[in-house]
Amino acid sequence: MTFVSVIRRIAACLALSGLALGSSGCQSMIVFDPKGPVGAQERDLIYFTIGLCLIVIVPVLLLTVWILWRYREKRSGSVPYQPEWSHNTKLEVIWWGVPIVIILILAIVTGRYTHALDPAKPLKSDVKPVTIQVTSLNWKWLFQYPEQGIATVNYVVIPEKTPIRFELTSDGPMNGFWVPQLGGMIYTMSGMATTLYLQADEPGSYLGTGGNFTGREFAKMAFPAEAVKKADFDQWVSEAKSSGNVLTEDNYQLLAQPGVADKLTFASIPQGLFHKIVHEYSMSRGAPAGIDQKAITLSGELAKEHTEGGQLAPDSEPSVHAGQAGRSGRHGHLIDGSGTTQDQRK
Amino acid sequence: MLDNLKDFASWFFVTGDPLIYGADVSIVMTVIAILFVLTFFKKWGWLWREWLTTVDHKRVGIMYIISALLMLFRGGFDALMLRTQLAYPDMKFLSPEHYNQVFTTHGTIMILFMAMPLMFGLFNIAVPLQLGARDVAFPFLNALSFWLFFFGAMLFNMSFVIGGSADAGWLSYPPLSEMTGSPGVGEDFYIWGVQISGIGSLMTGINFIATIVKMRAPGMTWSKMPMFTWSVLASCIAIIIAFPVLTVTLALLFVDRYLGAHFFTMDGGGNSMMYVNLIWMWGHPEVYIVVLPAFGIYSEVVATFSKKRLFGYASMVFAMMAISVVSYYTWLHHFFTMGSGADVNTFFAISTMIIAIPTGVKIFNWLFTMYRGRISFPTPMMWTIAFIPCFVLGGMTGVMLSVAPADFQFHNNYFLIAHFHQVLIGGVAFGYFAGLFYWWPKMFGFKLNETIGKWAFWIWNIGFYVCFMPQYVVGLDGMTRRISTYGWDTGWWGLNFTSTIGGFLMGLGFLFTVWQIAHSIRFMEKDTTGDPWGGRTLEWSIPSPAPIYNFAITPVVTERDEWWEEKQRNAAGKASKKQQPLSPIHMPKNSALPFIQAVCWFTAGFGLVFHWLWLAIPGLLGVAATLLAHSFNYDTDYYIPVDEIQRTEAEARRTV
């Protein structure tokens, strides 16, 4: 049949080009090109999973082709035809048994890896970890370095071969913090701080990106994660400190307004800002003793006047007035956040 | 006055985009054309009597399927707009707002207003016929379910030109979907569109469970029930447990938005993570709700076109029931990245993997149904065969995703997108296409053109792989979902462009399917046998299309594949069971109330979207009034006399 042969030829061409594309793509797949211990373990786990799955999948695909070919109606020559044959205990035990065994193996491996790769678990290292506090804002990233007392927006610099303790939160809709070549994604969520340990083993600029949709300019939330040598890091810190650009609470309120931002560097940060951001939303879910004022809310009719995102006109600048009004609740209960970080993990 | 009107119009209608104006014009033209045709050919009475007020499961099924195909067109068009926007870096085809609306609409429509109604359509067409029943258990409720779905879908679709569409993703995660993130009416359209049609879905679940439990033909024990009907039972059990969760979740979100409550807000004690948990407690069973009936269809099709009994019947039933139950314990795998801790993640990772076991077993059973069979390859079988490698691959990536720490690297990127499109298209859509082409002759009394059907099949399939295989790669290259554009420096262009080509090939495949249907209507090849495929189950024992009462005489079942065995007995010359005499058939009467009640719901929903209580309250009162009216209506049934049955059967070239 000419129709079938034409189709076959097209399919073959496409399969070949797909293969070519796939193999060329493989070289560039950054998840398979990790630059840190976490990403490397995750890559190994992915390879292991693929291998285990292929034990079942390859035979199934071959069996499919063989059965279709052998038992097609138009086949010349005789093959058995058993229209009543519909049960065989031995066979069924095999194909219940084999997947059960494979899933059992995978389950055990997954359990071990899930605990080993718990994002909040400190990495084994002789080097003291560096803490970076990450806040996802609409639509930018704020990175605070509490130990160095500096902050950046939309880029993060880390020293190589040093465990980095990322503390993640959000002052806005839930997002995801993902630097594929260093390791997997963890959500940033308002009212809580999640912890993610990552480490870069060699210098380089790695793609970082936002993982959960947050509205209009979500596509602009990619950021470079730059791993540099320890000495370069120290030099960069001192340069940042001498830049004179100060992050104050008021600046932060402006920064938190919906909109996009360029890369920014701040020479100093307000004391306990990250904890305040976390606490602003978490206090009503278990506020520490002495805090009884709940955040002034922004819902219903009021929200229409104080749009925080989502459906703003493309070029509209959020008015400072509206922003301050909308955030007036914050200033009523700002607390000293020291010692009250809520780490959601053990 | 005029200025006020102008202000209102510019706020009420979506403005400012040439695409929207084009759509406005085409909608108005289509409505005018439909009104004109109905009036010119004097079809208003016909439309009202035969369709809008019908409670006949076969007609309700056809209406479901037509609506679903229209929604497939819209959802598919949305997909092509998305792919066009992503074809090149820094594209300006869609603005970010518009892009966000389009992907939200695409997802919502494809799952809730395309897959669900197509599935319900096939339930309606096949289940009563497979059971040897005259209709579903509650025909009135069935019609009401359909109209609630239809007007829910209309309400959601309307937001496209009136008020503005939802743009917070197909599951509307708060706080983005709260007033602070989405102050427009789009989210309210989403809530009420999904809510109203969701009530319909829940009632359909109840209806089909009752039908399957109570209305099987005499002799059809549980172990003799056709596999598709088993799959419907499994799916409906999942529906009645999962859909109330959706209803409650959306109701809470509505209370947040409308009354300023704080269930899911960031502040005021709200917890948006609770919404994410709740919505996936519905959302994960939902994917099994749509895929289980597809498994049932594959089972019917494989057995029919291998001319062989389904292999491992008991295993198949157990596997489906197991999937139906275990699917409730996997929801958290949609957000391993929330950081629930290693113990919780391990639990949900393992529960997710466990589902792969019964699913894999089913694949083996289908393969061994074909083993030592006589396999022919008409279109329903082609779709079934295409399903196997596609779903196996999709299942493999599913297992990869279930490994929690590995999922940190897959989550919310195009690897995930490729995975769920592969299982939802390769598993669900292929299955529904197989079912649609398989039961088409039974629905309409004519067969579809096989040659065009096979062209459509190949274009669809090639398009599918070209579209989604590159997405796996680009996902592992760091491209996250829902970004409206990307830069040249990312290196994602080639894969995205290839993917777009595949998307358009699938669009071409859809056009071929439309051409196939149009061509088959034009050059109608009537099915005079009632059994064009050499079927095995009871629906093939009656004429095509099935008469209004389905079975002139209620069949008595003695075997699993009753109709196949009956044909064997006849061929062997063994006299079949003694024919019973005809007796008058008890049938449900048509009713306008389902349609009217759904219109009232629509009115109420529309009023609540715009906070117009003057519209919403009368709408809800209308709902209450129609409920009361039906409660006190005792004139709901009639009997078809014997001579009319004889006449109908004779017309279908059958002797009674």
Automatic annotation (TrEMBL), chain A:
One of its GO terms (cellular component) is plasma membrane. Pfam families: COX2, COX2_TM, COX_ARM. Residues 303-346 are annotated as: Disordered. Its EC number is 1.10.3.-. It is a multi-pass membrane protein. Residues 23-121 form the Cytochrome oxidase subunit II transmembrane region profile domain. GO terms for molecular function: copper ion binding; cytochrome bo3 ubiquinol oxidase activity; cytochrome-c oxidase activity; oxidoreductase activity, acting on diphenols and related substances as donors, oxygen as acceptor. It is found in: Cell membrane. Binds a copper A center. Belongs to the cytochrome c oxidase subunit 2 family. This is Quinol oxidase subunit 2. It comes from Cohnella lubricantis.
TrEMBL record, chain B:
It holds the Pfam family COX1. GO terms for molecular function: cytochrome bo3 ubiquinol oxidase activity; cytochrome-c oxidase activity; heme binding; metal ion binding. PROSITE patterns: COX1. It comes from the Bacteria. Keywords: Copper, Electron transport, Heme, Iron, Membrane, Metal-binding, Respiratory chain, Transmembrane, Transmembrane helix, Transport. CDD domains: Ubiquinol_Oxidase_I (cd01662). The chain crosses the membrane at residues 20-41, 62-82, 102-127, 139-162, 189-210, 230-255, 275-298, 310-332, 344-368, 380-404, 416-440, 452-473, 493-515. The keyword Transport applies. Residues 40-558 form the Cytochrome oxidase subunit I profile domain. The keyword Nuclease does not apply. GO terms for biological process: aerobic respiration; electron transport coupled proton transport; respiratory electron transport chain. GO terms for cellular component: plasma membrane. InterPro entries: Cyt_c_oxase-like_su1_dom, Cyt_c_oxase-like_su1_sf, Cyt_C_Oxase_1. Belongs to the heme-copper respiratory oxidase family. This is Cbb3-type cytochrome c oxidase subunit I. It comes from Cohnella lubricantis.
